[in-house]
Amino acid sequence: MKIALGADHGGYKLKEEIKSKLEGLGHQVTDVGCFNEESVDYPDYGARASKKVSEGSSDRAILLCKTGIGMSIVANKIRGVRGALCMDEKMAKMSRLHNDANVLILPATYVKENQAMKIVDEWLKTDFEGGRHEKRVKKIKDIENH
Q1: In the chain, is it the N or the C terminus that has fewer CB atoms within a 10 Å radius of its CB?
Q2: Residues annotated catalytic, as ranges
Q3: What pLDDT is attached to residue 120?
Q4: For 14-37, how does the pLDDT look when each residue is reduced to its tens digit (9 = 90+)?
Q5: What beta strand segments (E) does 18-121 contain?
Q6: CA max distance for the chain
Q7: Phi then psi for 84, rounded to 5 degrees?
Q8: Which domains are delineated in the chain?
Q9: For 74-104, how does the pLDDT look when each residue is reduced to its tens digit (9 = 90+)?
């Protein structure tokens, strides 16, 4: 799977750990930054990674900042993105099953590395359930287009 990664300085360290894990699993990772812990503006990196999903050059994206709130706001401004802020595996699973979330947002200061890896695993392995949820996702797309 092609996965874009983006983080601000608050999510940098965890992004690096997730990148290593994803590459180890054989995923094609595009890291749009940031590349150190110097203060940066999260909208720049959230938009870059989310646009990779929107344009189709990445299948999904994972974004990180301290709370995940800023990245969530940014991601969901990009056409075609359904970003979900997840703090546990159940949220990650439901974001895929019911919402077909294509961007995972993680709050780097609220989840430890071990928990973050479990969230990523669950999110990656869960497919969209479709069925009754298909019409709801279509409604989201209709809202976005009007």
Answers
A1: C
A2: 65, 98
A3: 98
A4: 999 999 999 999 999 999 999 999
A5: 28-31, 60-65, 83-85, 103-107
A6: 45
A7: -130, 125
A8: 2-145 (3.40.1400.10)
A9: 999 999 999 999 999 999 999 999 999 999 9
Mean pLDDT of the chain: 97
Which residue is listed with tokens 């990674």?
49
User: How crowded is the C-beta side of 84, counted as CA atoms within 13 Å?
Assistant: 22
* CB atoms closer than 10 angstroms to residue 20: 11
Number of neighbours of residue 5 by Cβ within 10 angstroms: 24
Our CA angle for 66, 84, 124, nearest 5°, is 100
Closest C-alpha to 109, from 60, 52, 53, 70: 70
**Contact between 8 and 75 (Cβ < 8 Å):** no
